Fold each of these.
Amino acid sequence: MKLSQDTTDYAEYEILKKTDIISAKITNIIDEAEEYCFLITPYFNEWIHLERSLEAANKQKKRIVFFFSEKQDLDEYKDRKKKDRITEFYKKYNFDIIYIKNLHAKIYLNEKEAIITSMNLYDSSNRYNYEIGVLIKNKDIVDLIYNDIILNYIYNTGKADELTLKGYYYKLLETNNSIENDNRYCVYCGTSMKQVNDNLYCNHCHESLHDFNQNNFNFCNICGKSTKENKLSLCSSCYKKYKQNND
């Protein structure tokens, strides 16, 4: 059966049917990340467009976390050139590189989107393989993938501590902080902003608004989801998490 489209785009997800489309979407995950990006790939060997995205992310001080298969490290001990390649990559960027026992999953995620796919971040996969994937756009599901799958399952149960190359993000991982604790959203306009004390508004809205009350609450301060219906500073799911953590 011949597929009529390379992607099938729905409101909350997009089905990816060609390898070059998946490659482009993965680099978009990196390019459009505001603060951080998780790249979970058993095997890694960058191609030119991916390398450019990583270089740009490094210049913009984005925190990139790689999960590699522990087997890649063992394989590369047998080939000194390959081992040196990973070491030099780490020294160049200071991205976190965390080795996971028996890793087979491939997930690429930033604050707003995630890709679950068959594709490794490997040059030969990009050039020769038939790959498929799903781009997830629903922020609640993206947060669920990070907290339940990446942090609680893959990281906490599979990490090979003795092989970890620690970069900018490692301390947050070790304290089990979820990504949403490191970023906030203006409750009036929804703009992503740095967490500063308990500030609910971005600098622009703080300066331009004359009245600070519940009528201004349009977005969740933690996840950025719309709260126009309940006019609270937190959406229902973030409020539940907040109550659980503080009771």
Note: The domain at 7-177 is CATH 3.30.870.10 (Endonuclease; Chain A).
Amino acid sequence: MKPFRSAILYLLVAVALGAYIWFFERKPIEDPAQKKTRIYDLVADDVRTIVLSHPGAEKKADRVPVTLGKNAKGDWEIREPGPYEADNNTVRNILTSLADPGVEEEIESPRDLAEFGLSEPSASVACLMADGKSITLLIGAKTINGQSVYVKPHNRTTVYMIGVATHMALLKKVNELRNRVVYATGYAEARRVVLSRPGRERVELEKKDEVWHVRTPAGTWETADEDETRQLLNIVNGIRVQEFLDRPDLSRLGLGERNRGMIEIWPSEKRPSVTLVLGEKIKDKGQIYLRRKDQPFAVSVVDHFDKDTDKKWADFRDRNLMRFDAPEAVRLKVSKPGASLVYEKNPDGVWLCPGRSQANDEAARIVDALASTRVQAFVEGISAGDAGTVHPPQAAVVNLKDGKIREFRFGRRRDDKILVATPAGRGHFLVFPNAANQIENVLTGITASGTPRP
């Protein structure tokens, strides 16, 4: 019985080994018939000019040949009709489709090209190379099932059948080739932004010593909120054209002297500013008219661009103005009327306070809460008395390694937030009460001298 079991075991091992070799080690047999057929040995970087002709197009405007060429920077542009900026990815897709069109079938030297729609081609794609050579692909009729298209090189007799998807990639109308990025500027390179709205004071943002600042109504400058500034530039960078409008009636579209607003951006110190003009809304499409002053045409974009860029100067005030690096704190004093505690960090980085066995944990929690305090709202026109910050219910003073001081005077509460003032003359702010609550917790039952209340 034992030899029988051993034989079964050996058999199972052999089967497992055979299965492994079959599925993981066996190399597939290459079928020469499956080798890709290429019509041209095309290197995309060698192409300098492309001409797309579509004489069989239904609309007269689409029958005008489109000529594309490379500018000095190596980017594609539409030269005729135009000039317009071209979308580099779309043009590269045309060249990729030419280099690898996905040939489905070859017909050698057919007698009658008319059967394939190639005696009078409906379209063609021509490319001029850097060495002066050129190629032209003639595009004919679709197959009976409509899933493929017949094409032929102009100087050969062979007809090829390619997929309709490749055909669509090759034949793009002029507006399908245009660059749909309204404006692109790098956050790091941008130097200045001005937002204007009719009947409202304009918003000015400017980068000073690589830090963004916002101009106040009093004419002074204060540090701008980095997140808000970055978001504004990201919104401008992210907007895309929905429709192009050549030879627009600017007044009718609300893009003339009377407009919805303007955004002027200085992209760098050496380049001139670019101004975007916002026009009328297209209500039934959820779009809005827009134009760049340096371009002769207008466009439409999604209408939330209007709302997303409708900002006041206060929207850019720095909401992180009270923040600091918590590990840099070396001394902390917390107080409320009739009670106070002082914590100091020893050379080993441990917080100490006489009579407080949990001093390190207490001080670390309070410092972390203060360091991460972010303004939720700016409160204008309120006095220290009305805010409750003359004799604050909770207060804190933080000394940093570099000698700087952060002071917090917490006042009255409003719903789930609390008013706070700093001695820097920046006014009052609403913040979440986490730090104030931490201070209140450690001061409960403490006297002004820092000893437990009897």
Note: The chain has three domains: 44-177, 192-316, 326-443.
Amino acid sequence: MSRYLSRRRPLFPIRWEDAPRSPQGLEILGDPIKIKNYASKGIMIKNHIDKRFLYLVAAAIWGVPGFIITAKGITAYTTIPTNELWWLCLITLGVLISFIWMFRRIVNRYCNLIAALPDKTTIRHTFPLRGWVLIVCMSSLGIALKFIPCIPAEFTASFYSGLGPALIFAAFLFIKRYITR
């Protein structure tokens, strides 16, 4: 039996001088048996943060793509002839209103979930699993739409110009909840 297993030392020593040394002088971070013993006792190292910061994490996850998508939508509008702009603006307005209505409900649900969490939690609790799946699917669909050549610029302009500001609006709702909590 190893001399490191016979002693009770923490898995990660507090001071560098207290770290166990191997005969060759290299640092030993921990034996697999010790790691397994700590895990079986329910002791895990987690990066806990204040749950208020989850609102900012959610705002960044929704807001950054919102700005990128808005810029792409505005860029797509510059390639469209001016005689078609009036009906594209109406379509953009319809897309914007529908996404704001949908995102407001989703943001309220996620904010209520964050508010119900304990004071210290991890970043993965920002959204439930279903929310992370939604984010991955939406991102994948956006990347797939980028590589489909038959999508007209009118669709890109109206859809992206409606979706982007709605995502930014959702990010502002998360920031508003951060400020008021």
Note: The chain has two domains: 3-40, 49-180.
